[in-house]
Amino acid sequence: MRAFRMFLEKLKEQICQPDHQWKIKGFIDSERRLFSLSNDTKVVSKILEIHMFLYILEFAEDCGFDVVLPSHQNYYPDLSFVSKANPALKYAIDLKTTYRNAKNPNLCNGFTLGSHGEYFRNRESCKNIQFPYKSYKGHFCLGIIYDRVKVNELERYGLQDLQCIPSVIKNLTLFFVEKYKIASDTSGSGNTANIGSIKVIADILHERGVFAKLGEEIFDDYWMNYGYINITDPTGIQKPIRNLDAYLRYRGIKPC
After folding, report:
1. Cβ atoms of residues 148 and 99 within 8 Å
2. Are 196 and 209 in contact (CB under 8 A)?
3. Rounded to whole angstroms, how far apart are CA atoms 33 and 203?
4. pTM of the full predicted structure?
5. What is the pLDDT of residue 11?
6. What is the pLDDT of residues 50-87, one digit of tens each?
7. Distance, CA of 182 to CA of 178 (rounded, Å)
8. Rg, C-alpha atoms of the chain
9. What Å distances lie between residue 116 and 52, 122, 135, 195, CA to CA?
10. In 61-100, which positions are buried (b, 16+ CB within 10 angstroms) versus exposed (e)?
11. What distances in angstroms separate CA 58 from CA 13, 55, 67, 109, one per listed residue?
12. pLDDT of residue 190
C-alpha cells in the first residue's frame, strides 16, 4: 500500500503537464486532424483509465504482480493484482474518477464503490466479480479528482496546434485508499445496489469515511444487510435500515 502511494507522484507526472493540465488533448483521425475531447465524465473516466494503464502495468511488474482485467464489462474490480510468487495473494483495485464541485472546491461529485449485491453478500459468489470477494486480501480505490474545463467541442486542430489545445481537465489529485475507509452509508446510484462514497475531498484523501474508525467488519455487515433489516418506527410502521445511526442502534454498537 505504501509503495502504491509512493507511485502516485510518478504517475501524476506521467499523465499531467507541468502546468497541471492533463496531457491528453484530444483524438486524431487518419488525416492527422485533432478533435477536442468532451468533458463528459464517462469519456474522461475511460480515457484516464487507458492513459494510466501502461504505467500501472509497469508498477505491478516491478512489485512482482500480474494485473488481471475483468473478463466481462462491469465486473468488479477494474484491476486484480495477483502475486506472481503466490497467486492466492490478490488485491482488488477499482479506478475512480470524479470532479470537484465548482461552487465548493472542498467537495467532489462522489463515486460508487462497487455493488453490495450478490457477490458482496455471498463472499464465494463469482457473479459480476473477477474472483470471489473473499479471495482478495484487500479492496482499494485508485482515484483521481479533477477540475473540469469548458472547451469548444466543435473545434478542430492540426498537429501544429498541439501545444495550444486546452485540456478538458486540470489540477488532478490522485489518491490510493482502502475502500471501506471512504464509504458513506448511502447508496451511490439511485435504485442500483452500489455503495456510495463520501464527498469531502480532505476526508477522502485522509480516509475519514463514516466506517473508518468502526472497522471493515462493521462496514461489511452494514452493507451486506443494507435494506434487509427492518425496524419499527414510533408509529408502528416497519422500515428497512438504510442509515448508519439506525444500524448502530439496532446492533447495540456505540458510535466512534
Report:
1. yes
2. no
3. 42
4. 0.93
5. 97
6. 999 999 999 999 999 999 999 999 899 999 999 999 99
7. 7
8. 20
9. 27, 10, 16, 6
10. eeeebebeebeeeebbbbbbbbeeeeeeebbbbbbbbbbb
11. 15, 5, 10, 30
12. 61
Q: How far, in Å, CA of 92 to CA of 133, rounded?
A: 9
How far apart CA 25 and CA 99 sit, in angstroms, is 18
Q: Please, which contacts does 154-161 make with residues 24 or more away whose CB atoms are closer than 8 Å?
A: 154/36, 155/36, 156/33, 156/34, 156/35, 156/36, 157/26, 157/33, 157/34, 157/35, 157/36, 158/32, 158/33, 158/34, 159/28, 159/32, 159/34, 161/34
Q: Which residues of the chain have pLDDT under 50?
A: none
**What are the grid coordinates assigned to 100, written together?**
470537484
Q: Is 135 exposed, middle or buried (0-12, 13-18, 19+ CB in 10 A)?
A: middle
pLDDT at 255: 86
